[in-house]
Amino acid sequence: MENIIEVNSLVKSFGDKLALKDVDFNVRKGETIGFLGPSGSGKTTTIKILTAQLAATAGDVRVFGEPVHLLKDPARMKKIGILTDNSGLYDRLTVQDNLALYADLYDVGKERIRNVLEMVSLTDEERTPVKKLSKGMKQRVTLARAILHKPALLFLDEPTSALDPTTTKHIHEGLRELNREGTTIFLTTHDMNEAEALCDRVAFLHDGEIKLLDTPQNLRTMSGSPSISLLLKDKTTVTVEPDESGAAAISGYMASGNLLTIHSNEPTLGDLFVQLTGRNL
Ligand SMILES: Nc1ncnc2c1ncn2[C@@H]1O[C@H](COP(=O)(O)OP(=O)(O)OP(=O)(O)O)[C@@H](O)[C@H]1O
């Protein structure tokens, strides 16, 4: 399958600080890939290099099959969308006018503005100046701007970090839809639930290195079989292993009418991250 992003032996240093150490990965067309890592692991640095906002210290980075620095060309820039913290919104203009400017720039019909505002749940704020919006609302305007032109490739740096769970869920649905329509998505997050909800593959980034890169399902099974918790009628909890001894215990509690609930303790991506790196997300 065609690779949209190809990264080989990528190194980035800031003075004597090594932010990325020999990073390799590819992103296939149509994929949603997530970089999951704690603060300082190198997520933003990766996105900035992939979008030609920062130059690599060493290594080969290709986007759409071409060296990444060519993305500075406006015609190529139109194929990508970027959400990072440096929003570049016009504070005194309304939400609608901010997006109208970009619609002109990208040759997009104004009717699309309504669609993206619905996706980010901001239709009520259409006529509000950006300076009157909360941090989370501004983040959503920036997201709306990034997807206005249905880019072939979308970069999202912590897209829902300032948002409440309901808005986050709604935005996740919108991003999945955009992906179904053909947009390849590269996102960073420190939220394992977000990585699971959106990503076909997830990279664990720690101290500037990719520790693992696989599907969320494969990653979860790497941390071993889930144990099983039984809640008994006397409100005590018993944990058993998913093997013959566990089956015998469960059957015993059931036969005696003592069992209230059975709960499988699936390992989370966060558990595996801690196992691998000794650090919480
Ligand atoms: N302009 C810079 N100058 C010096 N060091 C930098 C610069 N930008 C990033 N770093 C360092 O590089 C490392 C990776 O930073 P980066 O911002 O990529 O991490 P991150 O995973 O995005 O963190 P966060 O989740 O807090 O945004 C950190 O140690 C950071 O201090």
UniProtKB/TrEMBL annotation:
Alphabetical UniProt keywords: ATP-binding, Nucleotide-binding, Transport
SUPFAM superfamilies documented for this protein: P-loop containing nucleoside triphosphate hydrolases (SSF52540)
SMART domains: AAA (SM00382)
Domain ABC transporter: 5-232
Pfam families from the UniProt entry: ABC_tran
Domain of life: Bacteria
UniProt xrefs under CDD domains: ABC_DR_subfamily_A
GO molecular function, one term: ATP binding
Protein name (database record): ABC transporter ATP-binding protein
